[in-house]
Amino acid sequence: MAASELPGNIVEPAVAPGRVAGLGHLPRLVRDPFGFFLSLAELGDVVTILIGRKPVHLITTPRLVRSVLLAGGEVYRRGRVFEKATKTFGGGVIVAEGEAHRRQRRLMQPAFGRHRIASYVPEMRAAVERGVAKWRPGMVLDIPRVTHEMAVDSLVHSLFKADLGTGAAERIMGAFPGVVSGIMAHTLYPADWMERLPLGVNRRYQKSSDEVRAVVDDVVARSAGSDSAEASLLNVLLKAHEQGDGYDEALLRDEIVTLLIAGSETVATTLAWVLHEIAGHPAVEREVVDELTAELDDAPVQPSDLARLPVLDRVIKEALRLHTPNWLLTRRTTEPTTLGGYRIPAGAEVGFSLTALHRDPRVFDSPQAFEPDRWLDDNLAGFSSDAFLPFGVGRHRCPGDTFAWAELGVAVATILRDWRLAHKPGAKVRELPMVTVQPSGLRMVVQRRPL
């Protein structure tokens, strides 16, 4: 259906073909989300799809996505994905709006400054070393589980300067699938009443959210009133709670849950994809290992080393482009507006896929290929770096982007120095779009790297 003309060269977005009665475009979205997103570009920069009977205006260009992310909160607020995440995150910074978001972000921002990030590197490295200490040559690893364990361990010891206690890490790990699948299921339900049905995904979402909150309650109870002189973000949040500062007990818990889940999920998923791509590209692996050997020799990675590892930096950047975790994000208009010449009514849902945008052949040559050298300075003229938005942009840009980047660099360097990972023969890796794009079926065999 073509876009319809309105006065003043403003048009209504075209409606995508192929909708199904009662379900809208949900079958196409679930069956092949990235192919579906990319197919919409030929219909316009903004295209309307239906989830059930609910219209969602999908943006197909990086330029318009950037304009939405940079727009003030008086035009766009967080949308359906974030709304459905409140069962887990409550009022945490990832779902907060307006002044509450500014206050919460301002409170935690110093924890992500450059010097603080450098101070976290030893804990990040130690978390990875604790993980690989369990490996034995020839073991077959469930890589997403391994990387989640490392990410949770790293975050808790780096930002919280705490220990989850016996069994708590396993409880958090067990809750991850229920949380990420529940948020996406509730986002894509064609009718909101489906959230109340006694479906397995709904029960798991509630149970998993409750489990994470119970673990966090224990962390807060054991940390409150401690006289530790070691600065941590957890201490900052506890102090804000003790002094008032708008942090009641519920918000304190929400913030810690948000950091624990959102702060580890994206890193863990990206690290899994990095290891997958390196294993599939032996020449890239050799280049990374040669760089690590030349720059680090036998010493463990230090904060100052990360800036001297350009090959590793390009590999991580390319994995983030090809496997951007956030495959569906949303905003909601607060008033009638225009977006790239398209009329968008008040209260409308606006959506975009960073994963699909980063695979757009209009922006990146051979977008499905894993080519770290596309990020060499001599090659950057071939595309606009403004189109690369793995952490978002604007006031809601991921506050922990520098933490995540350092954590990924430390993890890959620490693992590849001593270990070689290869795909388990016969294993079939596929993309599983939950809240993040999970590498389902990623099993790898580990061997000691020859000296």
From TrEMBL:
GO terms assigned for molecular function: heme binding; iron ion binding; monooxygenase activity; oxidoreductase activity, acting on paired donors, with incorporation or reduction of molecular oxygen
UniProt keyword list: Heme, Iron, Metal-binding, Monooxygenase, Oxidoreductase
Domain of life where this protein originates: Bacteria
SUPFAM superfamilies: Cytochrome P450
Cofactor names: heme
Keyword Protein biosynthesis among record annotations: no
Binding site for heme: C398
Family: Belongs to the cytochrome P450 family.
This protein's name: Cytochrome P450
Gene source species: Amycolatopsis bartoniae
Taxonomic path: Bacteria, Bacillati, Actinomycetota, Actinomycetes, Pseudonocardiales
